[in-house]
Amino acid sequence: MGSSSFLWNFTKKFVTFGLITVTVSDRYVTVVPVRGGSMSPTLNPKTSSSAGNFSDDYVLVEKICLDKYKFSHGDVVVFSSPLNHKERHIKRIVALPGEWFGSRQNYDVLKVPEGHCWIEGDNAAASMDSKSFGPIPLGLIRGRVTHVVWPPHRMGAIQSPPREGLSSL
Amino acid sequence: MKVVSYIAQWRGIVKEAMNRTAIAVKFLCCLHITDNYFCSPVHIYGPSMLPTLNMVGDIVLAEHLSQRLGKVRHGDLVVVRSPSDPKKSITKRIMGMEGDTVTYFDPMLGDATRVAVVPKGHVWIQGDNIFASLDSRHFGPVPYGLIQGKVFFRVWPLDCIGVPGQ
């Protein structure tokens, strides 16, 4: 009798803990690993020495921004890929809804439609972003990255990069 | 002496308060999980889904499992986050999955029927009332990731309880 009630208690505590974790990670804040180098050097920088490449970066993603969908230039966001809803990508917002945006590549100027945004990876050479699939609806965004929490020597808030050459008019 | 008894009383009250808070927190977490992963009520408003859904005041239940498992099909009524305003949700019917060629007719642009191919990862949504609906005929196919749930049951008004018609 003693061991079955211990098991029951343990299960109850486990389920409670699981419920609270899922709720908090859906609504408030969560930690996700970053895969790939499309946000180099901000996230997962590729260093030439082998010492820094053992594991992916882990970042803090806050979901409180999904209440009002109010983003600003330079926000790094997590979003569901418009080509495959099961994949999540992390990129930076460079143009907000309704703005005229000048892309470096082909000197086009285009207007970002209402409710959409233009996202690009910091590592322009190796990044699948709005340059290939166009502006994405804000409804696909699943959170905003605020801090890097692993590895310890790069812990800290995400900065807006110095924008050289790229201007949104 | 009195201080000791006050402290003992206080400790009892604090313990009771923490227990009640824990129960409230657990309840809210269960509510969140049910609302996000299983089933949630949706309040419909607008003429774009006549005659299937009424203009004002319908309450339907939407389940969130089908879209997570990728089982949303042609002809399903879905709740979708609007591509023009992420704070709003719209309810439409899926008329084309990825790779389909959709033939559509927009009364506002004359009598011609047009054709569109739905790209990978997107769906084509249309309201049942093609004369008064802002849908994929105007803003193009929407990414599958914007689908929030599939409508499967209507609970209000009481004389229309049941599965919304085809």
Written account of the structure:
The complex is a heterodimer of chains A (169) and B (166). By secondary structure, chain A is of the alpha+beta class. Chain A is built from two helices and ten strands; from the N terminus they run H-E-E-E-E-E-E-E-H-E-E-E. Chain A has helices at residues 2-27, 130-133; strands at 29-33, 58-62, 76-81, 84-95, 100-102, 109-111, 116-120, 136-137, 141-150, 156-157. The radius of gyration of chain A is 19 Å and the shape is elongated. Chain B has 166 residues and is of the alpha+beta class. Chain B has helices spanning 2-38, 65-68, 136-139, and strands at 39-45, 56-63, 77-81, 89-96, 101-105, 113-117, 122-126, 142-143, 147-156. Chain B has a seven-stranded antiparallel beta sheet with strand order 1-2-9-3-4-7-8. The longest helix of chain B is centred in the N-terminal third of the chain and has 37 residues, at 2-38. Chain A: This is Mitochondrial inner membrane protease subunit 2. Chain A: Belongs to the peptidase S26 family. IMP2 subfamily. Chain A: Residues 8-99, 109-150 form the Peptidase S26 domain. Chain A: It comes from Stylosanthes scabra.
